[in-house]
Amino acid sequence: MTTQKHLIKVGISACLLGAPVRYNGGHKQSLLCKDVLSQYFNYVAVCPEEAIGLGTPREPIRLVGDVDNPRAVGTVTPSLDVTDALTDYGQTKAAQLNDLCGYILMQKSPSCGMARVKVYQEHGRPAEHQGRGLFAAALMQAQPNLPVEEDGRLNDPVLRENFITRVFAYAEWRELLSTGLSLQKLYEFHARYKYQLMANSPADCNALGRLLASPQQLSLETLAEQYFSLFMTALKKIANRGSHTNVLQHISGYIKHSLSSDEKSELQTLIQQYRTGIVPLVVPLTLIKHHFKRHPDRYIADQVYLQPHPENLSLRNAL
Ligand code: SF4
Known about the structure:
The chain has 319 residues and is of the alpha/beta class. The protein has helices at 31-36, 48-51, 83-96, 134-142, 157-178, 183-200, 202-213, 220-236, 241-252, 261-275, 282-294, 298-301, and strands at 8-13, 41-46, 61-64, 71-74, 103-105, 119-120, 148-150. Strand 3 and strand 4 (71-74) form a beta hairpin. Helix 7 runs antiparallel to helix 8. The longest helix is centred in the middle third of the chain and has 22 residues, at 157-178. The chain starts with 7 loop residues before the first strand and ends in an 18-residue tail after the last helix. It binds iron/sulfur cluster (SF4).
């Protein structure tokens, strides 16, 4: 994983860091973002509604009309239409912030909400299928590979671990690009992520391997673009106990000849206890790491899967 020499640049809705920028002059401070993730992330705080000049406090806005193409208007003054301003700002900001490795958005907001944002209909009630905030939509359209998550969803340990894994992977990819792309580096990157990808999506892991094995007539840049797009799609898929168990079995295969039968049986017991939900992922992984310390294997030592994010975040204690 990326070493912590420098913090990873991540965009965030400003109200999540405690800035009093909400329509009522309040905030929505997230302790996870502000106190925990800030040890690893260098935040770029953005409040789109303030940035387009709505001021604080302000009349709240809401989405209305077509769920796929809503307009943002005042809740009291429907003629206050900030659709174009929010969309233009989102497009401009997304182009400016082209060095981010992730984005944390405030949920339910007509500007920042990533999903399930209410879009009101003529009868005054929200549509059944809910929409996306206008700033969030512009950002995600401009940067489709960028890991984006909502603060509320980060309370779910599985979604939290998935998002943070993607942010660190994105940062590692940026680091690779900054040192100059080569086919060899692409192969090495893929090799290091092999088991992480297998946990998230075995099918995508194979497809990525095939893409690199026969790059056809693609230029290196096009190959890297195609690779990274599928790579981020794969990492977004949620690993489960079955796929993690599969990876644990594969990895433990590398040391099976170095372990005594008691050690093998102990490891198998823990893997099965993880599979059936008795212990969290960190338990068999800790034993596996312990064995690899005594019986090092270079290929496994390089695997991102063993530590895709800082150990201190303890993200796998809750998986
Ligand atoms: S949700 Fe977005 S627009 Fe609303 S206060 Fe927070 S940062 Fe500003």
